[in-house]
Amino acid sequence: MENQYYTLMEKQDFFEVIENKYGELAIFIDSRDGSPVEPVLKFDGKKTALLRRDTRRSIILDNIDAETRNVLAESEVVMIVELHAEMVERIYAVPVENVEEIILDGRRVRADEIFRAKSKDELLKSFGAVKTWIGGMVK
Questions:
Q1: In sequence order, what are the beta bridge partners of 90?
Q2: 130/73 Cα distance (integer angstroms)
């Protein structure tokens, strides 16, 4: 079992949003390794969305077109289409959560990536700790 002690947030430099005649949206992004696990799209109603693809990777969608914002804010579900060059790698439905603000906290490691270390409690939970011992000097 692989444990991840950080969250990687990658900025999607270019993405395309399309709307069909029923008002449904599809968002085209670059494909990532592995299948998404319980993905969700968080949208701040302004210009930024965060696709939480799984527990360790999120995709930042910034500078969302002004006309798209209203449609996206009213959507309950969007289709995510992951492309490898021009070929469709995978398609999946994602619920949309409207949030007050997208918080991109963490340590920027490249222009397009942010690492967010887990809290001690999150780390202990992912580690599966069942007992804890304290050593050293007594406070």
A1: 82
A2: 42
